[in-house]
Amino acid sequence: MPAARDPRPLTGEPLALDLLNTRWMEEGEVRDLLTDLDGLAVWLDANGLGGDYAADVKVLRHTLQARDALKAAVDASLEDASLTEGARLVDAVLAHGRIRATLTVTGPGELPEFPDPSWGPAWLAARNYLELLATAPDRIRGCAHEACILHFFDTSRNGTRRWCSMAACGNRAKASRHYARTKGA
Asked: What pTM does this model have?
């Protein structure tokens, strides 16, 4: 049976942000891909995890916990006490796995290990967030459109990307500015 189509407007972001993007706005309402096991299966498949992890109730519960933790951490201001809370929540997810260093025929490697495999997708998303923070924390962004709740990792050369999608949110913002200018003229 073929996998269900992914209905989200933005896919392909790093795992941590892709997990955050399982909630999005559509026609003024928040939509949530992770309301059931079918949605979880879509997300796992979209991120290449479907073959390794079953879409079951425990995986869904842990994945939702990771999404809430990542949301708290990403939305926290560095000067705000909520950063500590977000870090505590991410750490609680990370406590369910570890990295084991390995030596392979191609050189050093790392293998994630989980005492309870149902934590795998949640832990991998939290670990990916740490990797993004180590790479370029200032490039983890929320869409600049006031009605959008999506997140992205800015890979533009000069680091000035503002919209989750220029075709959607960027175009809406430009159209709004144009309408305001022509209305006032």
From this structure: 0.87
Specify whether the CB–CB gap between 100 and 115 falls below 8 A: no
Task: List Cα–Cα distances, 44 to 54, 63, 163, in angstroms.
Answer: 9, 10, 25
Residue 29 — φ and ψ, nearest 5°?
Answer: -120, 145
What phi and psi, each to the nearest 5 degrees, are found at residue 111? -125, 120
**Closest by Cα among 34, 36, 41 to 65:** 34
Give dist(CA 142, CA 108) in Å, integer: 35
Angle between helices 57-75 and 120-135 in degrees, nearest 10: 20
Q: What is the DSSP string of 82-103?
A: HHHHHHHHHHHHHTT-EEEEEE
One digit per residue, the tens of pLDDT, for the chain of length 185 reads 556 899 999 999 999 999 999 999 999 999 999 999 999 999 999 999 999 999 999 999 999 999 999 999 998 865 566 678 899 999 999 999 999 999 999 999 999 999 999 999 999 999 999 999 999 999 999 999 999 999 999 999 999 999 998 777 866 655 555 456 676 65
**Helices (H), ranges, the chain:** 15-20, 37-46, 57-75, 82-94, 120-135, 171-184
